[in-house]
Each structure stands twice: as structure tokens, then as C-alpha cells.
Design goal:
Elements (H helix, E strand, L loop, with lengths): L1 H12 L20 E14 L7 E9 L3 E2 L2 E11 L8 E10 L2 E4 L10 E2 L2 H8 L24 E12 L2 E4 L5 E11 L2 E14 L1
Antiparallel strand pairs: 1-3, 1-9, 1-11, 2-4, 4-8, 5-6, 5-7, 5-10, 10-11
């Protein structure tokens, strides 16, 4: 999962889609209304998998802090993998929001929240059709964007991305969040990353 490791970290940061997981209490949410995401701040990360997991996120840097949206984002990351990663690669996201001293798990609604990708390989193929070059800056730095992901070390030097306006449902704005993103194949966990950040909307 060299490339998938980078995709996992960025996917979790962006609260990518996935099916409800976990047995913690869930927040009742309203579907109506939306707000424009204006800032993301307080970013932190850590690996959360078993020490024997073959894929490890070695570094991840996101700047500035806070990130203004719309605006520019600079990301650098490094991932090591001791195992070739092939389809199906299941990704499970658990997204929690702080309510006072409690952390409440958010359900998966309209592809946001605590969701599950049954196979991120298929999703990548839908986003970037097989046979087409990987988008920059992945192409420049030799980071794959399709399965299988060969074992090895992958590094994304500091790279700039332009962030457009982002609309989020009203239930997913203004607060502190944490995300657990885990990748598995055939029931074997391959990687796990935890992210923490705050969202502010207008």
C-alpha cells in the first residue's frame, strides 16, 4: 500500500466515504442544510495498528495550520510497506466528534462519516481509469495510483494543492473530530492511522 498509504491518510483527512462500523453511541443527525467549510486546524496524526502491520505511515505534514478553504494546502508524506498490496483492499473509517468530554461516533450519511470502502482499488480505478497516467504530483515522484501496490518506500515531498469551496452538512461542521482509518485484506489488518483536527464553517 505505498501509494494506498498516502491515499489512506489523505482520504481520512478529507472524511472520505465508507458503511457504518463500531458499536459506540451514534449521534442523531439532521439531513437538511449545509454550510461552507472555511477552516481546518489542529491537525495531528499517529499510527494505530499492530507493530507487525506491513504498512506504516512514517511521516505526514499538512500546512498551514489552520488551513483556509478555499485556499492552498501543502502536504508531505512518507510510507513504507513490506508487502505487496492487492485487491480487495478494504478501508474502514470511524469518525467521531467531541461533545463536551464525550466522543460520539458519527454514522455514514450520504458518503460522509463512519463509512466503509469494500475495495479502495475499485474506487481508484473509477477515479483514475486504468491505463491513464497518475495525476501530479504522484506521477513525478513515482507514487502508484492503482492496485497492486508493490512493497517498498514511497515519499511525497512537500507539494501544493489548491482546495476549492467545500460544502458539508450542518451536522458535520464546527467542532473537534478524530478519525481512525484502517486498511485490511481478507480479514488481515495491513495499516491503521488516526487523525485529529477541528472544523470551522460559515
Amino acid at each position: 500500500m505505498g501509494g494506498a498509504g498516502l491515499a489512506l491518510a489523505l482520504c481520512a483527512l478529507q472524511l472520505c466515504p465508507a458503511a457504518l462500523g463500531g458499536s459506540q453511541p451514534q449521534l442523531l443527525v439532521e439531513r437538511s442544510g449545509s454550510r461552507r467549510l472555511s477552516k481546518v486546524g489542529g491537525f495531528a496524526w499517529e499510527n494505530c495498528g499492530d507493530s507487525r502491520n506491513p504498512v506504516v505511515l512514517q511521516s505526514l505534514s499538512v500546512a498551514p495550520d489552520p488551513i483556509s478553504i478555499p485556499g492552498s494546502l501543502r502536504v508531505s508524506a512518507a510510507v513504507s510497506s513490506s508487502k505487496t498490496m492487492a485487491s480487495p483492499l478494504k478501508v474502514v473509517l470511524v469518525v467521531e466528534k467531541a461533545l463536551g468530554d464525550l466522543w460520539i461516533q458519527l454514522p455514514c450519511i450520504d458518503q460522509l462519516g463512519s463509512c466503509t470502502y469494500d475495495d479502495i482499488c475499485t474506487i481508484l480505478d473509477n477515479i483514475i481509469p486504468p491505463g491513464t497516467p497518475c495525476p501530479e504530483p504522484l506521477l513525478t515522484y513515482g507514487i502508484p495510483c492503482h492496485c497492486p501496490f508493490k512493497a517498498g518506500s514511497y515519499s511525497l515531498p512537500a507539494s501544493d494543492f489548491v482546495l476549492p469551496d467545500v460544502e458539508l452538512p450542518a451536522w458535520m461542521t464546527n467542532g473537534n473530530y478524530r478519525v481512525r482509518a484502517a486498511v485490511s485484506n481478507g480479514g488481515e489488518e495491513l495499516a491503521c492511522v488516526k487523525l485529529a483536527f477541528s472544523l470551522q464553517s460559515q
